[in-house]
Every structure is written in structure tokens, then in C-alpha cells.
UniProtKB/TrEMBL annotation:
Gene3D superfamilies: Met repressor-like. InterPro entries: Arc_rbn_hlx_hlx (IPR013321), Ribbon_hlx_hlx (IPR010985). It comes from the Bacteria. CDD domains: RHH_NikR_HicB-like. GO terms for biological process: regulation of DNA-templated transcription. This is Ribbon-helix-helix domain-containing protein.
Amino acid sequence: MKHYQRWLYGKTKIAVTSDEEYIDQLDAFVSKDIFQNRSQAIQEAVKEKLARLNKDEERMLKKLSEHFHEDKFLCGRGFLRS
């Protein structure tokens, strides 16, 4: 299997439109061999952003759960109306 076939296997091709300044930055990283190509750079950026969003969402849900249980406790003690 050729390298590019292995790289594409199991992936979905999309089109991305972006401001030229971001493309210039991507190209600079590619030319410095930080990424093999634009696709790899964009995939890494999306992966990192999604991980951060998921982590933020988990944190928010944990806080909501803590507040829910605290409110439920206070309602049971007669401090809050249910």
C-alpha cells in the first residue's frame, strides 16, 4: 500500500475555505516539516479543538450535576422550595 493510500484510508475528504493569513501560516508549518501537508495540520487543529470542547463540556456538566445535587439536598432540608 502506498503512503498516500494508507494516509487516506478510513478518512473523509472535505473542502475548507479559510482566510489567506491562516493558509499562509499552515504553509509555513508545512515548509518547516512540522506537518506533512495542510490536511495533516488542519486535522491536528480540529482534533485539539474538539478535545478542548469535550473537556469543557464535561467540566460544565460536572458543575451542573454538583449544583443539582446541592439544590436537591437544600430542598430536602427545607431551605429551598422544590
